[in-house]
Amino acid sequence: MLYDGASAHIPPTPHFTAMSARPDIVLLVLDTQRRDRLSCYGFPQETTPHLDRLSADATRFDQAFSAAQWTVPSHTSMFTGRYVPSHRTEQSYSILPPSIPTLAERLREAGYYTTAFCNNPLVGVVNNGLRRGFFSFLNYSGLMTSRPNQAGARPTLIDRYRQLFKRALSGVLHRIQDSFARSDWLLSFSFTPIMVPLWQTALSFKGNTPRSLGDAAKLLIERRGLERDQPVFSFINLMGTHAPYQAHPRHLARFAPDVKRSSAAQKFIRRFNSDVFGWLAPLTGAIDAERKAILDGVYNAETAGQDEQVGIFIERLRSSGALDNTLLIVCADHGEHLGEHQFMGHSFTAYNELLHVPLIIRDPSGNLPRGTTVGGTVSTRRIFQTALTAAGAAHPDEEPYTLANSNGNDPDAHTVFADAVPVTNVLNMMRRRRPDLVRDHRCDQTRRVIVHNDLKLIQTGEHAVELYNVRRDPHEQQELSSIFPEQVETLEQSLVRHLDVSRRSAPEAAVSEQEDSPEVQRRLRDLGYLE
């Protein structure tokens, strides 16, 4: 039975005494968490009192942007410090080239015990290279969770045979799940009405938030199986705000009361939860106010429920003393459309609902001052350099990019980039089912983004551009490209220069792919970068 938080009880834990010269590092990713639904970022309802408390004792970044609009490329950027055109891990079937080291690999080489507690099968199950470098990678989604090399385990002979059987079966199931991520036909088949309830139950898509956070806290506090004074890197991914929406009744009563008392609202949510195609496809028109309010309410309820579990985790670290020696990074990999701009989900667009994400860092060293807010524009890809610098493992050319340097001496000059590459298997399914939506919403075109100070440019395909002042207009309602054509041209030129630099730093296989791209060739030639 999952803990529902109704009667919060934090079990006593031993006080943390192993104060390493280097901090533990925790990267806590709130998968699919919209920034604008957190009360510490100004949401009028108190959805996140625990994150609010953390934010008041940490550094909060007001203008943090993800490098991509969905899980795989966004996590890859955080794990490698590279933008998407440089690492080229864009699709569910992509594999990170071995020539690009991951954060876990770098920290493991530096002596860290690297461990993951992951609820997202796209990171914890699909074979894309994101698990590289982890001594222990615990997966909480899928038919069977995996617990390889768990620190502190002392199995009996029976336990070992049981674990061998479980690993063998889990490996088979993981390969099946990996096949669904790589096959257009299998993915399309999995979205048929007969399959949806089966795979939702079997996959346990949202994972197990209480168990994953509890296991992470236990390792960070008790440190069983670790070398004396060995620091820990823990990556945690939570899926609480990802569809399907299954909020606790207590949170629904507060944030979505209509779902508690209206049979029509309950029917709508049940239908939405079973219509996976509806999580992904654009809308045929503007969402009506009633359905928008229902979706907003259940999403807010999920946000509150997840915050409650995160609060228990943080309090366990705080009360044990472990938090005092932990660099705690809390962020989202991306957000979620709930009808804005006629989009649902997070497969295609580059609007703020997906890219403008929360980022909160509590740094025990003081390099990131507590109780402060950073207003400069930053990218979550710099989590990589921030963690390595804190661990004393950054290269000289990486150290300037720690997020501690995100004000006056920011090496990025408050300019960030992002790429919304269409998710191919989702796009192919949409082409078969609703080609009109693909055409009308340009779902088959890559969206490239540059944010510089107040201005954000979205370039869709080769010609379409949108310009917004994201500080004055965070929901991107007033398009400004016709009013400021010079700013558009300047930002477009910066985009092409960025693409050229990224292309040159990409692995050889990725370079050859980009060199063959007519779009890249034309854009570079038009601006004088190629003969």
Write the layout of secondary structure elements.
Elements: E1 24-30, H1 49-56, E2 59-65, H2 71-80, H3 84-87, H4 103-109, E3 113-118, H5 121-124, E4 136-139, H6 157-182, H7 184-190, H8 196-203, H9 209-222, E5 232-238, H10 249-255, H11 257-261, H12 263-274, H13 276-280, H14 289-320, E6 326-331, E7 337-338, E8 344-345, H15 352-355, E9 356-357, E10 359-362, E11 372-379, H16 383-390, E12 415-420, H17 424-433, H18 435-441, E13 447-452, E14 455-460, E15 464-469, H19 485-505, H20 508-515, H21 518-526
Parallel strand pairs: 1-5, 1-6, 2-11, 3-4, 3-5
Antiparallel strand pairs: 2-9, 2-10, 6-10, 7-8, 12-13, 13-14, 14-15
Walk me through the structure:
- This protein is of the alpha/beta class and 531 residues long.
- The protein has a single domain, classed as Alkaline Phosphatase, subunit A.
- 41% of the residues lie in helices and 15% in strands.
- It has helices spanning 49-56, 71-80, 84-87, 103-109, 121-124, 157-182, 184-190, 196-203, 209-222, 249-255, 257-261, 263-274, 276-280, 289-320, 352-355, 383-390, 424-433, 435-441, 485-505, 508-515, 518-526, and strands spanning 24-30, 59-65, 113-118, 136-139, 232-238, 326-331, 337-338, 344-345, 356-357, 359-362, 372-379, 415-420, 447-452, 455-460, 464-469.
- The model is unreliable at 1-19, 148-156, 510-517 and 519-531 (pLDDT under 50).
The dominant shape is globular
pLDDT averaged residue by residue = 86
C-alpha end-to-end distance: 65 Å
CATH homology superfamily name: Alkaline Phosphatase, subunit A
Proportion of residues in extended strands: 5-15%
Q: How much is the radius of gyration in Å?
A: 22 Å
Question: Helical stretch count?
Answer: 21
- How many strand elements? 15
Oligomer: single chain
Low-confidence stretches: 1-19, 148-156, 510-517, 519-531
Q: How many structural domains does the protein architecture include?
A: 1
Q: Can you tell me the CATH class?
A: Alpha Beta
Task: Using the 3D structure, state the CATH architecture.
Answer: 3-Layer(aba) Sandwich
Class computed from helices, strands and strand pairing: alpha/beta
User: Helical percent range?
Assistant: 40-55%
Largest sheet: 9 strands, mixed
- The CATH topology is given as Alkaline Phosphatase, subunit A
